[in-house]
Design a protein that fits this description.
eight-stranded mixed β-sheet, alpha/beta, 18% strand, 13 helices
Length: 363
């Protein structure tokens, strides 16, 4: 067993993401997932499933000839297919003596701090009760503004929500391939990745999305394995440490849950442009961003919104929660002392653009 795979055998909280293509290609896949999870759950492991497939199932139920592009028809397909999808999971897990519990989320649920805490507590209660949460995006009410993009991204946000130490992204290829078309067993810094294509069909995620999701989950301290869904006993093999798929190791610099939320869940509403001195100071990770270090802003944001912190050359230094609106940041830029008081009032010199407690520096 490869030394990097040993940690997988000790994983206790495991998130498994299953894509639409995999579900469409194997009618027995859900039953196989339930069987493997039931066997591994008896070893005191807890599982969460992130599933796609509602729209694909709904398309056929509503008689559409192909997946629609219009949002209302996509929402209709999701409404028609979600019940069928969940029934498959309920029957499969029920046959193994487990309860599959439906959880539907939108990006807005996880972007709001109170709602994300409620979701965390609900998932913890389900896991404590021995149920298997089966999570999908709430496509029936999701619009472009509140969509995750695809369920790879949703899975990467669920991982820190349940304190997962392993995220498994099941797909229709063997793993990540190098330029020679060979599977990369363990991803390392600077690995040269080839062009990976998946078969056409239902679904929205590709390998680029999976690698992005893997990066996000690894920053939460989780190991990530991109593995072939069609391989028999793939879940068991990964958890047993076998050389399956591509393993992405946890990032050496793990983010706390709130930092991860700021960096990867919230969508930036604008940019704050920094001078070189401010960029260097923030890179150390112990300073707040003051108006004197700001050159200007892009976009329209309010106090409390997430913003990107960028250099004049466009390099992103980090992300954080703005303590001022874009208008006030623009007015206060390059000012300090009496000048700052003049534009922001008597309390101006106490103002920060982004407080260090609300700041995540890109490593």
């Amino acid at each position: 067993m490869h030394s990097a795979r040993v940690a997988l055998t000790k994983a206790q909280r495991i998130v498994i993401k299953v894509g639409s293509r995999s579900l469409a290609g194997d009618g027995d896949l859900v039953a196989g997932i339930a069987r493997q999870i039931a066997a591994l759950t008896s070893e005191r492991r807890a599982f969460v499933v992130v599933t796609s497939g509602a729209i694909a199932l709904g398309v056929s139920r509503l008689g559409y000839r192909k997946r629609p592009k219009e949002m209302p028809r996509l929402q209709a397909a999701a409404a028609a297919g979600q019940g069928v999808l969940m029934q498959r999971y309920s029957v499969a897990f029920g046959a193994e003596g487990l309860v599959a519990a439906q959880v539907l989320l939108t990006h807005a649920d996880l972007a709001d701090r109170e709602r994300v805490n409620n979701a965390r507590q609900a998932l913890a209660a389900l896991i404590d009760a021995g149920a298997v949460p089966v999570i999908n995006e709430n496509d029936t009410v999701s619009t472009e503004e509140i969509r995750f993009g695809d369920n790879d991204q949703l899975a990467s946000m669920v991982a820190p929500l349940v304190s997962a130490d392993l995220l498994m992204l099941l797909t229709d290829v063997e793993g990540v391939l190098d330029d020679a078309g060979q599977r990369i067993a363990v991803m390392s810094e600077g690995a040269k990745i080839g062009t990976v294509t998946s078969a056409s069909g239902p679904g929205t995620g590709g390998m680029t999305s999976k690698l992005d999701a893997a990066t996000k989950a690894s920053r939460a301290g989780a190991s990530v394995v991109i593995a072939p869904a069609m391989r028999e006993n793939v879940i068991t093999d990964v958890v047993m440490g076998k050389d399956v798929g591509t393993l992405i190791l946890p990032h050496p610099s793990t983010l706390r849950a709130r930092q991860h939320w700021i960096m990867y869940t919230l969508r930036p509403r604008g940019d704050v442009l920094l001078d070189e001195g401010a960029a260097r100071a923030l890179a150390v990770g112990k300073s707040s961003l003051l108006p004197i270090g700001v050159l200007g802003v892009r976009g329209d944001f309010h106090a409390g919104d997430a913003v990107r912190l960028v250099t004049p050359a466009g390099a992103e230094v980090g992300r954080g929660l703005a303590r001022m609106s874009s208008i006030d940041v623009a007015r206060a830029a390059r000012k300090k002392g009496d000048e700052l008081d003049a534009v922001l009032g008597r309390e101006g010199r106490d103002q920060v653009v982004v407080h260090k407690d609300d700041l995540v520096v890109i490593s």
